[in-house]
Amino acid sequence: MATKASRSAARLMMAPAVILLLGWMLVPLIMTLWFSFRKYLPLRGGDLGWTGFDNYVRFVSSSAFWPSVQTTLIIVGGVLLITVCFGVLLALLLDQPMWGQGVVRILVIAPFFVMPTVSALVWKNMFMDPTNGLFAHLFKFFGATPISWMSEASLPSIILIVSWQWLPFATLILLTAIQSLDSEQLEAAEMDGAPVLKRFWFIILPHLSRAMTVVILIQTIFLLSIFAEIFVTTGGAFGTRTLSYLIFQRVLESQNVGLGSAGGVYAIILANIVAIFLMRIVGKNLDA
Amino acid sequence: MGRITLDKVTKSFGDVEVIPPLDLTIEDGEFTVFVGPSGCGKSTLLRLIAGLEDTTSGHICIDGNDATNVPPAKRGLAMVFQSYALYPHMSVRKNIAFPLRMAKLPQAEIDKRVEAAASVLNLTDYLDRKPGQLSGGQRQRVAIGRAIVREPAAFLFDEPLSNLDAALRVGMRLEISELHKRLETTMIYVTHDQVEAMTMADKIVVLRAGHIEQVGSPLELYKEPRNLFVAGFIGSPRMNLIEGPEAQKYGCHTLGIRPEHIEVSADKGPWSGVVGVSEHLGSDTFFHIQNTGLAETITVRADGEVGFRHGDRVHLTPREDVMHRFGADGLRMA
Q: Start and end of every ABC transmembrane type-1 domain (chain A) (predicted)?
């Protein structure tokens, strides 16, 4: 795009896409802001006019607010920790030459193609059911009392399910990063006297830092808004109510659109705070 | 000390034998160059010595100790790779210090040695930069710096200059030679470039398909190539190889004569031909003479001032005292 004419032509041709995307984003955002300042109870009188910051105050002062923020952060942090750690290990493993490599790689990616609702239901009923689940049978086989996963270990269960879904994504990105590592660097380190673990720590891990950053940033965006896994397993009970789930409950279960919209605005703020922290911590890996 | 002995070393990848049984001794302090066309096994041989590849059979001794199954780090050798293999996320200082850190030397000693290496290699101003911010020649020097701080028994160079431009290559060639003179450590250098081999080596090992074709000093190889392959490989431009009745006149199957050992004149000489392409280098001119009836073209070196044109008929006089005679088996005749 060198000349003035081609630049303006480019702008003109990009305009529809930009306008569409902008509308897609701006309309819901403005509607959320609009409703968050209104008292709007669909089944109890409909739109009852402006209320100022009432919704915002009520949403934060609710006893469910801070626990839901905490739950959100625990789930995001836990899933990130598990997927990145195991992703690195799995990627290292899959990078080794082995028989049936192609098939194994496809199998590893498979969980990512399963819909969240389906995978959560499968986990809940097939593995974690306290009487018929595979885990229950396993526990009984060793003579232990089966755990009622969804009520006794609800948060770890959800972290486990979501990690299972996202592990393939992390593995895949980290695997491609490992494959791009120059083997001469590893050989040089070997000659320099670095044993396997030190080669991993000083050469492979720094090489992966950029890919890890990408994994962390993308996963965070999606994990902040997980919903289906909670909806079909605990339904927000047993301390698994995240911020997005709380908003859902305020809007649909309490039928209070204004209050939910105020929560939505808080969710945007929380996402931005997390984003700022993340960019501070890992964002520098994206430079250079 | 770095005397390296290879005893009947072989290497196979699956069914393919890359290195057939091979014996070689590299004396302490010697600058040895492995040279050969690409795919001749010279890099594999270097990697066997380094320990990055396992030998299929045979023994490698370093200073009299069997090192065949010793891991690379314990062999006391340092290697400079073709891609330099610098660690991109570490500063130059950390790159050079890495082997010392791995050896768990005290920090003061590490600093001292890194500073010393940096001043030898003119890297003092760049110690805090990352490899990505350096030019090709500087990266090369960092890679050498990382090798010399370890004070190894021998240095291994794997085509270290092939990523540099021509001018820089000449400069680095001198620097490496000078480093060798100063350190007096054994160096093994792999290259496909016979000019690098000739200019730097104490001893050249010419390899073809894993076989050693000839071992000797640059001048020995130049003056007395053992066979046609070495004759054609060493020397630039290539030696002229003449077969047929003219060779039989000298009592051999193939007659070799270097371009610099043929005189060219306008009127007298036993051979004659027509000037094809001429390459003017200033100091020298290379004429490619066609239609001589001897070989497809005969390359001749003449003084830079000699001014034959394309299509001129010229006469050639070979110097009979420096002719090379080869038998039908390709070996040099006594």
A: 69-278
